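User: C-alpha cells for both sequences below?

Assistant:
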Amino acid sequence: MSASTGDVQGRAAANVSETNRGPDRDLEKGSPDDEKARNARGPDPDDDDENIDDDADEYTKLLKFIDVEAKREKHKHDEGDDDEGEQQTKRLWYAPWKRVPVKREESTNVPPAWLDTDMTQGLAENDATSRRARFGYNELESPRQNPIIQFIGYFRGPILYVMELAVLLAAGLRDWIDFGVIIGILALNAFVGWYQEKQAGDIVEQLKAGIAMKATVVRGGKEFEMEARELVPGDIVVVEEGQTIPADGRILASYEDKDRSKAKGILDKRELSKQRGQKAPPKAANGDASSSKSDEKEPANDEEDGPDGPIKVDKGPSVLSVDQSAITGESLAVDKFIGDIVYYTTGTKRGKCYMVITDTAKQSFVGRTARLVTGGTGPGHFQRVMSTIGTTLLVLVIIWLMAVWIGGFFRGVALATPKDNNLLVYTLIFLIIGVPVGLPCVTTTTMAVGAAFLARREAIVQKLTAIESLAGVDILCTDKTGTLTANQLSVHEPWPSDGVDLNWMLTVAVLASSHNIKALDPIDKVTVVTLKDYPKAREMLKGGWVTHKFTPFDPVSKRITAEVEKDGKKYTAAKGAPNAILRLTQPPQEVQEHYRQQTQEFARRGFRTLGIACQEDGGKWELLGLLPMFDPPRSDTAQTIAEAGELGVRVKMLTGDAVAIAKETCKQLALGTNVYDSERLITGGMSGSDVHDFVESADGFAEVAPEHKYQVVEMLQNRGHLTAMTGDGVNDAPSLKRADCGIAVQGASDAARSAADVVFLDEGLSTIITAIKVARQIFHRMKAYIVYRIALCLHLEIYLCLSMIILNETIRADLIVFIALFADLGTIAIAYDRAPYAKGPVEWQLPKIWIISTVLGLILAGGTWVLRGTLFLSNGGVIQNYGSIQEILFLEVSLTENWLIFVTRGPETWPSWQLVCAILAIDILASIFCLFGWISGPAPHNGHTDIVTVIRVWAFSFGITVIAALVYFILNKITFLDNLGKSKRGMKNKKQEDFLTNLRRLTLVHERAGDEDVFRFQTNGDKKTNGAAAEASKT
C-alpha cells in the first residue's frame, strides 16, 4: 500500500474533514449521525441524476449516484419489470387504429423481498390477495373467458357478418319486420350457443374442482389445508411424505426446526466450506444411500465449480427426498437439502419440511414446459372445415346475386322501387337465405351437449373441437397399468427356495419395504398387505424389531435393503429384481439354474417377480425365494378391445414393463403378441420406411420411455393415421400434444392434463371407447345438419334466382326471414337427437357432402317449381277454394325444409322426442301463417288459405320428402361417392420416410483443422465405432 493511500484511508477512518475538492467536506459525508438520518429517511422519490448537487465533490456525487441507482433497481424489482427489448403491442379489434401493450405473463418475476416471509407466521390474507391479483391462481389451466366477451364472439365471423349486413340493409329499406326478425335470429343463435357452451363448461369446472390438489399452508401463524390453486409467491407451505409439491419452492427448514436455528447453522457451514475451497476427493462408487428412522439423512458433500477446480461443499443432512421422474425421467428419488429448489408436481418420498413458494404454476418449470406444447396452435381442423363451407356459400351468394342483378337490368327492375320488388330487396333476400346463420350455433350446441354428456361419464373435454378428432381416431396407443389392467397388484403363489420357511421369506420381504403407511408405493403396499393371509408371518413380525437403516429402491443396484435388529441379532433384508438378488447372494450353480427357470416361468405367465434375500450378523447372504406379483386385466378389457376392433380402432399397448410381461398381458386380452422392445425404434438400424412398417404392424412396445411415445405417434401420423395417445407424466406432454387426440388418464399430472384434449377421471379402456362412440354420434349429428343446411341454402337460391329471372317475382322478404328462423329454430334440437355411431373412423368428406347437398337442393327446388306451376292451371292447381300464392309457397318451403332433417339424419335410429316436437311445432306455426295469411301482403281473401289447400300442401311436401329420402339412400350406397374425399390411411412414402429417418440419425460435427473450421456429418453408427475405438486406445 502506498503512503498516500494509507494516509487517505487513515484520515477517512478518523473522520477527518478533508476532501479532494472544497474545504470542510467529508470524503463520504461520513458522519455517523448523518448516515443514520439518511438511512432512516430512505431514498427520496424525487431523487434522480438532476438532483445531484453540481457543487459537491466527485466522491459525494459518486455516492449519491450509487444511492439513486440502488433505489431505481429496487423499484424495478418491486414492480417485477424485467422485460427486455421493445414492448410488444397489439391492435384492439373494436379500435384497430389503437395499439395497447401486451402483457407477457411469463416474463413476470417475483420480487425478492416477497420471499422473505416469516416461516412461523406466513403471509397475511390481504398480502395473499394482492399477490394473487398480480400473478393469478396457482394453476396451469388458462383462465375462463369473460362471459360477455364469449357472448359477443357469437356475433363475429364471416357468416354472421353477412347477416349483420342484412340487418343494415333492412334498416335502410325501412323493412322493420325483417330488421327485427333478423336481429332476433342473431340474438337467439348467440344466446343458445353461449348458454349451452357455458353449461358444458360449468359441468367440467365442477369435475375439475373434485380433483383439485390440496396443500398445507401457514397463514397468520396457523397451519391449515387449502386448495393449492390459492397459493401465491411467498407462501409458507408444509410438504411431507406422500404429498405432491404444489408449486416451485425453496426448502427453508425441516419441520422440527421451527425457529430455523439448525437451517441457519447448515447454511453458514455450507458458505464456510465454499470459502475454504477444499479440493474434492474422487467420487466414490455408487453405493446404497443411507437414511435413519428420522427424516434427515447423513450429511452430504457435493461438488461445485471453483476457480481452481471442483470444491467440496458440506450441504448438511437431506431433509426431503422427491420423485422427479415425471420431469427428468430419473427412477431414483432425489435428495433435497436446505436451500434447494423443489419443483411443482413432483412427489415427496421421504421427509417433512417447510418451503417458501418461489414460482406459482404458470411461472414454474413445469408451467414453462407446458406452455411450450400448448401455445400457438392456430385454428383446428373443425374450424377450417366450417370456414371452408362458409366461404363457399358466400361465393355462391355472390354468384347468384350477380345473376339476379344482370337479369334485373334486362327486365328493367329498379334499384329501390317498387317497395317489394327491387334489386335491393332481392339482395336482402339472398343475404338471408344464402348463409346458414345457425351453423355456428347448432354445431357449438351439438358439441357442448355431447361434452356435457361425456363429463357425466368422467371424461372432461377441454376443447370442444377435440370431439371431431376423437371421432376420426383409427389407432389408440394406450398404456397398460390402470387402463388395460386393474392397477391392483396381488401376490400370486410365493415361491420359497428349498428348505426356506415361506413365512420367514414373507417377513423379510415386509422388512425390506417402506413402512410409511401414508405413502406406500403399489409394490410395497401389496407386499405388506399379503401378510393378512399368513398369520405365522404376522407373528414373526411382532415385537422387538428395530430398523437402523432403510435404503429405498436404487435403479443401479435394483434392490431395496433394510438393516434391522431383533433380540440382539442384526439382519439385512433385501428385495429387488431377481437377477440383482441372484448376484448379491451367489448361491450354488444348481440353485441358480432352478431360480432362473422359475423366474422365466413367472415372466411367461405375466408376473412381475421380486427376489428376496437375507443376511444375518454380517454373514453370508441367503437366497430366500421369489415373490410373483400380478396386475390382472380389467374384467371388461378383452370385450372392450374386441368392440374397439369392430369400431375400426386398433389398440396398441405401450408399457414400461418387460417384453415377456407385455406379451403375456396381450395374450390374455387377445390383443396380438407382436410386442417389441422400444429400443428398436432408435437403435434397430432399419431404414426409415422399414421403421414405419415396423411401428404400424406392431401390437405394442415394452420398456417404453416418453420419447418413444412421441416417435410412435409421429410415425403413425406420417402414414395418415389419426392417433389417440394416453399419458400421465410431465414428459408425456409433447406426445399428448402431438397426437390427434391426447388423452390424460386418471391421476395424470397438471402438465399432462394441460396438454391433453380429453382428461379421463376414471380408469379403464371402456371409458375411452365409450367416448369414441359418443364422439361419432356427435359427428353424425353435425354432419347431418351441415348436409341439411347446405341443401336449404341451395334450394331457395336456385328457386328464387330462376323465379326472379323468369317471372320477376319472389317470396316476400318478410316471409323469407321466417323461413330462415324456422329452419334454425327447429334444428337446434338436433343436438339432442338419438344418433347412431359409425362402425369405422369418420371424416368430413367435403366433396361427398357437397354432391349430396346439391342433389337434395335441386330436388327441393324442383318440388317448389312444380307446386308453383300448378298454380298457373285454370282450376287453381293445388288450391281447393282460395289461397295466397305467397303463403302456399311459404308453407311448402317450410315443410319440405323442416322434414329434410329426418332424411339427412339417416334411418338407423328413431328421432328423439325433442327433435320431433320442435319440428312439429314449427310446422303447425307455418300452417297457421298460411291459414290466416300473416304477412302475405296484398292478396285475395286477405291472404287467407282454406284448410283443404293446406292439407294438400302437406301431402305434396310429404311426397317431395319421400323422393328426397329415396335419392339420399341411393347416393349413400354408391361406392364411388362413399370413398370420395376419404383420406388414404396407411399410405407409405418410402423416399420421404427414409430421408427423414436418416436426417434424424445424422449429427453435425465441428472440428478445428489449423486455422479453419471444418463441419461434417456423422451417423449414429460412426459415433459408436469411434467411441469403441477411443475406448480401445485408452486400454
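Moving on to the next sequence.
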Amino acid sequence: MLSMSTNNLSYSDQGGTDSAVEVGQETTPTSSNAGAGFGLFSVDFKKNEDLKEMLESNKESLKLEAMKRVVGLIAKGKNASELFPAVVKNVASKNIELKKLVYVYLVRYAEEQQDLALLSISTFQRALKDPNQLIRASALRVLSSIRVPIIVPIMMLAIKEAASDMSPYVRKTSAHAIQKLYSLDQDQKELLIEVIEKLLKDKSTLVAGSVVMAFEEVCPDRIDLIHKNYRKLCNLLVDVEEWGQVVIISMLTRYARTQFTNPWKEEGVFDERNERAFYESDEEKTRDETEAKPYMMDPDHRLLLRNTKPLLQSRNTAVVMSVAQLYWHLAPKNEVSIITKSLVRLLRSHREVQYIVLQNIATMSIQRKGMFEPYMKSFYVRSTDATHIKSLKLEILTSLANEANISTILREFQTYVKSQDKQFAAGTIQAIGRCATNISEVTDTCLNGLVLLLSNRDETVVAESVVVIRKLLQIQPTQHSDIIKHMAQLFDNITVPMARASILWLMGEYCERVPKIAPDVLRKMAKSFTSEEDIVKLQTVNLAAKLYLTNSKQTKLLTQYILNLGKYDQNYDIRDRTRFIRQLIVPNDKNGALSKYAHRILLAPKPAPVLESAYKDRDRYQLGTLSHTINTKASGYLELSDWPAVAPDQSVRNVEVIEPEWAPSLGKTGKSKPAKSSDDKFYSDSGEEEEEKGSGSSSSEDGSSSSSEESGSDAESHVQKNSSQSSEESDKSSSQSEKSSSESDSEKKERKTKTPLQKKTVKPTAKDSRYLMKRAGPTSPKQHTKTIFVNVINQHSVLQTFSYSHWSTLCVSLFTQLCPLSLAFPLQVSGPAFVPEKSHDLLHRMTGKGLSAQYQFPRQPCLYQPTMVSVQISLTNTTDHPLEQIHIGDRSPTGLNMHCFNTIECLEPEASVTVFMGIDFNDSTQAANFQLCTKEDHFSVSIQPAIGELLLPITMTELDFRKEKGKLLGMNESSATITMAAENMTSQPISRPVATVANLGVVPSSQGNVHRFAGKTASSRAVVLVTVELRESSTALITINTEKSVMGSMLLRDLKLALAQA
C-alpha cells in the first residue's frame, strides 16, 4: 500500500525565511512587497512545487518518493492534475516501480489532459513491447484512456496485438480496452467483434470474465460466437474470478433460454446425469423405461446446471445471487429448491445485501411458497432491522401464509402491530388484510382482530385498520352489519382523513343495512363539512346522494344543504362533484332521462378489491438485475427470451478435434509412450503427470505442438509451466465436445444404469474400452497395468470391465504408487451395539380424533433404500369405531425422499399395528413433515431425527481407524474435554451412553484408556469416528472426526451431555 509522507517541506521565500508547508495545502505569501488588499485575492503559485522539483530531479529515489505521494493525493480524492507535465516526463523511465506509478497517474488524468498525453503516444507504443507484462498492460490501459478519436487506429492496432500476447494479464487488459474503444467509436464494431471472437477461444480463466463482459457490451446479440465456446466457459466457470463469474452466468442464462427447450414440463423425465433433487438419495432410483415421457434434458443444459451448482457456496453474494437466478430461470421445478439454503444464508450479511436478496425471495415466494416455507423463521422481523427490511420480510411472510402456518404468522403479526415504527405497523395491518383475503378460514378472525385495533390510541393504526376493514367487508357485506355500526360509533374519535372517508363510504354503500345510523352520521358531517379535508368532503357528498335515493324523507333537506355547501367550496373537484350529483339525483325538465338511472349508477354492486402483493408482476424482469430492483426497465437491460418450441441444432456447440495418431516412437527402451487421453479430467492426477515426465516424447508430438492450441488436441507433451493450466482446460473442453458429438443413442442407453460402488460414475462405452486397450497394447506388462488403472480412475469408470483377478493383481502391484489417489473401499455395516426403547409421540389421540401414533428408530438398515433411515411407527385406534384407509398424504419439503407404508384398509377399535417407513434425511436433522391421513381426516405430523440416528455402525480394525482418522484432521476434527464421575471411568459406563446417543459400532482398542467408535452417515456414506480418551482427574477428551463438520459439532454436543450425566 502506498504511503504518503507527513513530513513538512521547506520553501525559500523571497525574504529568505523558511516556512514549513504541508504537501497539498496552500500557503499565504509572507513577502513584505505584497499589499494587504491584494493578499485577500492572492494565489499561491508554489503549491506542490516540492513535488515538481522532486519529479524533475536526477535521483530515481526522489522521483519514486514523489510519485508515491502523488498517488497518495489521488487516493485521498485531491486534485493533482497540475503535476501532469512533470509526471509525464518520467514515462520513459527505466525504473519499473516508477514507471508503474506513472502509468497509474496517467490512467487517472489522461482523459483530462489529452493534449499532453498525446505527446507521449510514441512512448506508450514502445511500452507495448516491453518485456514486463505489467508495463505492457499499463501502457495499453493508458492508451485506451486517451479518448481522442484521432488515435482510434492506433488503439485498434494495440488491442489486436495485445489479444495475441503471451501473458493472460495483457490479454485481459485488451478485453477491457475493447469496451473503451467501442464507447469512443462504434464504427469499429466489426473489427472489435473479430478480436472478441479470438479472445473467446482463450483457455485462461483470467481472460474469460473480461472478454464476456466485452461481448455483452459490444455484441450481446451475436449468440453464434458463444456456440463453440459454451462448454469451455461452463467448465472454466468455477476457476474464474468472482466478478467474471457473475458476468458469465448472466450471459449463459440468456444463451440457454435461446438454445434449450422448456424444462418446466410437469411430466418430463431427465437422463441420469440429472442432478439430484434437494432431498433425493445418492443412488439411482430404479425407473420403468416404459413410462418415460418424450422430454429429455439436453446434455449441455445439464452441464450448465451442474457446473454452476458449487458456486452457491461462494463467499461473494453477487455470485450466489447470479446462480440463484440462473436456477430460477433455467432449472426444472424439482431442482430449484437447492438455491433456498444459499439465499437464506445471505440474510446474515449487510442490510444492503439483505434488501436485494429479500426482494428476489419476495418474487420467488409468490410463485413457489414451498421453497421457503421450511425457513419461515429466518424471515421473522428483528428489532434492529431497518424499515425497508422489515417491509420486505413482512411481504414474504404474507406470501408464505397458508392454512397450516397462518396461526403462527398471525401471532407474529400481533407483535408487529405494536411496533413503534408507524409505517411498519400500518404495513402489518395491510398484511393481515391480505391473509384474511387469501385464506377464507381466518377471515372472521382477522376481522375481529382489526375491529379491536379500532380502540388503539395510535391514529395511524386505527386509520389503516378502517381502510383494511372496508376492503374486507366488501367480500362479505351481509354478515358484518355489526362491524359497520361499531365503526359508526367510533367515527367521532377518528381524525385521520382516509379513515373517516372509508367509514363514510361504507355507510353510503351499505346504507340500507344501517337505515337508522347512516342519516345521523350525515347530520354530523353537515355540521363539520366546511372544516373537513377534501377526501372526506367528497365522500360526504356521495353519502348524501345515496341516502337521498334510499331514504329521501329523512335526508332530503340535509342533502340540499350539503350540496349548497359544496357548490361554493374552494376546491374545484368538490364543486364539480356537487354539480354532477345535483343534476343526477334531482330531476328536472332537462335531465329527467338521466335521473331515473341514478339508483343504478350510484348504488351499483361493486366488485371486492383484490389485495395483491406489490411484487406480483416483478417476475417479468430477470431476477438479480437493476430492472427487477427498481421495477422499471433500466438502460441496457437485456430481456430473457421465451423458450424455443423446438430446440436448435445442438451440433453447433461441437468443437472439431483432430484425433492424434498413436504411432509408436522409439526411445531408449524401444517402447512407445502412450499419449494423454482426451477424456482426462480437468485437473490431471499427479501420478499420470509424473509418468509423462519420466517417459520419452515423440517427435510427432513436438511437431504438432504449435497447432494444439487452436485445435484443442491433447498431443502436447512438452509444455511450459506457465501454460500447463490452459492446456489442461483445453483437455476438458475438447473431450466433452468430442463426447457429445460422437455418442450414439445406444451408448446413451448403456449409461442408464448406475453402479453402487461410487456416487457418480459414467460407464465406459464400447469405444472407450477399445480405446483404453489400444493405448495400453504396445507397452511393457508393468507399464500396461499402470496405464490402464490410472485411466480407469481418471475416467471415474466402473471396475467391472476387468475381472476380479485383474483387480487384485493391480491393487497389490500398484498400491504404493497410487496411494495419493485415495481410492475408497466400502466399509461393512454391522449390527447396532444398542437399540434404545424410547418412543416419541407422532400423533396424540386427542389431536388425531382417536388415532394415536408413536415412532422410534430401530437402528436397522433400511430395506427400501440404503440411504434411508428406518422408522418404526405404531398406530393405535382408541375410538369405538373402525378407522379406514390410513395412509401417508402430502409431504414437505418438496423433494423429500420417503418410502411410505402400504395403506391400512381398516384398523379395528382398540387395535394396534406396527408399520415401517424409510426416510432420507439427507444427513440433516431437519424435520420430515407429512400428513397422516384416514378416510375422513388429515393430520399434519413430523418426525425429527436425533443426530445419532442418522448414522450406521461399521466394522473396523484399530489400524483402519487410525488411517481414516489421519485423513480427517484440521477442520474435519472437533473435540472437547469433560469431567466425569470416578466410578464411570471404565469401559461399560463409557460404551453405553455413546451407543445410546449415536448408532455407532465399537472398534477394538489395544489401549485401556482409549475407546473408539465408528460409523458412517446413512445418506452420504461419510465416515464418522469417535474417540473417548480417559485422562487423570476424572476428565475425558472426546474427539470426533468427520468431513460433515456440522454433524460432528452437533454429535459432540450430545455426547458431552450424555457422558457428563452418566
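User: Anything stand out in the second?

Assistant: Residues 724-742 form the longest helix (19 residues).
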